[in-house]
Amino acid sequence: MRKAQRRESARAWIDSGATVTVKSYVKRYGTDRYTAYEDLKAVGFPLTEADERWAVRPVPVPRTKQRADPPWEWHFDGYQVMVVIGHTPGGFPYGPTETAEDHMINCALGPAQGFLRYWRRL
Fold first, then answer.
1. What's the per-residue H, E or C state across the chain?
2. Averaged pLDDT, groups of 10, the chain, 122 residues long
3. How far is it, in rounded angstroms, from Cα 80 to Cα 111?
4. CA angle, 56 as apex, 51 and 57 as ends, to 5°?
5. Helices 3-15 & 33-42, crossing angle to 10 degrees?
6. What pLDDT, on the 0 to 100 scale, is given for residue 105?
7. pTM greater than 0.70
8. Which residues pair with 97 in a beta bridge?
9. 30 FRET partner, CA 20 to 30 A, in 5, 62, 78, 117?
10. What Cα–Cα distance (Å) separates residue 107 from each residue in 29, 67, 86?
11. Rounded Cα gap, residues 78 and 103, in angstroms
12. 67-70: which pairs have CB atoms within 8 A and are 24 or more residues apart?
């Protein structure tokens, strides 16, 4: 429900004689308490001193972005680079290895883009 429609409905609800509080407004219209406070104040509903805590929204807390680890593991055995897909029962890693062309692509684009380009060819 849009703000204008919600406020018009709230006026009718208040005029019906129902018990209206910030909490009941939240339950009825599905808003947060800060929006409920603003709407009730805008339609002219008398609010109590206890409701003044909803007058000012708290400052949003900045969140740091978590870097996602790639779903693959790079392995270099001294000779070639490979993407570890799994391990044999003896513990030896296996997966696709890097060719000379892929090595040039990886040096130019970076290993992640080179790996993705490799899988697009399959």
1. CCHHHHHHHHHHHHHCCCCCCHHHHHHHHCCCHHHHHHHHHHCCCCCCHHHHHHCCCCCCCCCCCCCCCCCCEEEECCCCEEEECEECCCCCEECCECCHHHHHHHHHHCHHHHHHHHHHHC
2. 92 93 94 94 93 93 78 70 83 75 62 54 50
3. 13
4. 115
5. 70
6. 64
7. no
8. 82
9. 62
10. 57, 22, 25
11. 14
12. 70/112
Residue for token pair 């996602």:
68
Tokens of 113: 């883009």
Q: Which residue has the tokens 């009941």?
A: 24
Sole residue written with tokens 């709230």: 10
- What is the rounded CA–CA span in Å between residue 109 and residue 105? 6
The reported pLDDT for the residue numbered 46 is 92
